[in-house]
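Recall from the previous chapter that SMILES is a line notation for molecules. Here it describes adenosine-5'-triphosphate.
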Amino acid sequence: MRESYKRFWPYIREYKFQFLMVLIGIILTVSATAATAHIMKPLMDNMFINKEARMLYIIPVLLIVIYIIKSVGRYIQAVFNTYIGLHIVSRIREELLSKMVNMDMQFLYLNRSGELISRITNDINRIQYFVSSMMPELIRESLTVVTLVGYIIYLNPTLAFWALIVMPTIIVPLLQITKRLKRLAHRSQEKNADIVTRLTEVFNNSEIIKSNATEQYELERFHHENDHFFKLNMKSSYTSELISPMMEIIAAIGLAAVIFIGGRQVYSGAMTVGEFTAFLTAFGLVFQPLKGASNILGRVQDAQAASERVFHIFDIQNQITDGKSTLSEAVKRIQFDQVTLKFEDKTALENISIDIQAGETIALVGQSGGGKSSFVNLLLRFYDPISGTISINGHDLKEYTQNSLRSQIAFVSQRVYIFQDTLAANVAYGDTVDEARVKEALHMADALEFAQSLPDGIYTVMQEFGANLSGGQRQRIAIARAIYKHASLLILDEATSALDNETERKIQNTLKEYTKDKITILIAHRLSTVQDANRILVFKAGQIVAQGSHQYLLSSSEEYQRLSQTLTES
Ligand SMILES: Nc1ncnc2c1ncn2[C@@H]1O[C@H](COP(=O)(O)OP(=O)(O)OP(=O)(O)O)[C@@H](O)[C@H]1O
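With both inputs in hand, we obtain:
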């Protein structure tokens, strides 16, 4: 627990004023509670025994004042506790998202989106209680316990010894319970992540689910996860609910000891009935806050497990690190020098050497899994090679900051991403919308006509994933987005695969002028897409097995001849 607090301390300590307010709230509540007991004295002595009539007015008014103070204290404590908790949690949520979006691509590929969403939402919410309310509550309960225990020791040390001797017996089972609770909390949070993953999958794959009529199948899979989650939470409840009855049994044993030993002391005259009653009352009162404190320990396990899951992400170090220079000029030359890329044991690229100059259009072709996407992923620094160097304008890629490098690259990926925003904002993505530029980019991507036919033209809001668009329209928006960026390196990974030949040709013709001083790298499976490239690189099992113009390769490379058969057919 200390470890977790250490992690939260930098956040917690920034809320001195709010904690002070919580403390004031606690002081008001505790004093008002004490005053409630204290008012019993004038109530009995002055009002009933001495029959002072003015007390008939004073006591009820005092009682109301005391309860107002108590309520104000409670309110202040609750509101400021919540403020601290919610504020810290919302800050950590943003920091966690910032950490996640800046993680290596491999991390983002490997971790399910549902798992990451669950950490940002569910896990973080569970921390709130830990960072705000737990400490004040523990302080309040401990203070009350210490005061009451002090009081009973003061009343009768021998009896207090026998009454309290049973207390340590609770420690061992309590520790075991909290250990088990933490294990269960970990599993329950993992299960929660599974549920969110399942849900994101169900909603992202609705087409495939509907077309295969697998709704029932998905419901059963969800039921399986949900049921598991339910059972884990019940297990947690069986365990945590043990704390209260255990405390009560211990309290009963303590009380029995007090009655047996105290009763004998009363019989022998060592203790008056009044002293015995006061002792019994105070001893009875100790257990309420003690139970409260043990319950807090139970709840803390959940928050601690969640904070471990959250801080685990904060602790992951990126493998891809930023260089110091800024790539502010256009990409004029790309060199691969004996570059090898491996994913664990699998070699994705082997000994790749190539030199590309500004103005060139390079097409990558080859069998599926041949390494084409890996080649462009290296340029984007989604991965780093295990050996060899890649340089841009004569400097190793690793010398540049990733942001400055990527600002020079316009990338159209195989999967088209459309954000739930206006069409214009989708084209200008991340930049301010310049209407004329957006229209020009759309025109070059042969998408202006369809954009203008939309209800609000380029300001029409796109649906999530571009659900209201055809595959070809989505691709054209993605191409327009790349054009809008005016980057010096254009990477098109199967960017025109959903377009008909005529549209593709049209876009290619406009792009020719646009890319004449840039470097264009395109991956394609269609002959029409690649045959005009200055150079075609043929990939096979992670190697470039041939390169040259379309005509040259047709006459010299068997692999290309074989590929061109399939390229023409598709
Ligand atoms: N993130 C990754 N983790 C592990 N292995 C990967 C990863 N990305 C690619 N690979 C592997 O590296 C090899 C090359 O993949 P790559 O995606 O570069 O092929 P490709 O030529 O683009 O294929 P396609 O034409 O099917 O898109 C494949 O065997 C693939 O399984």
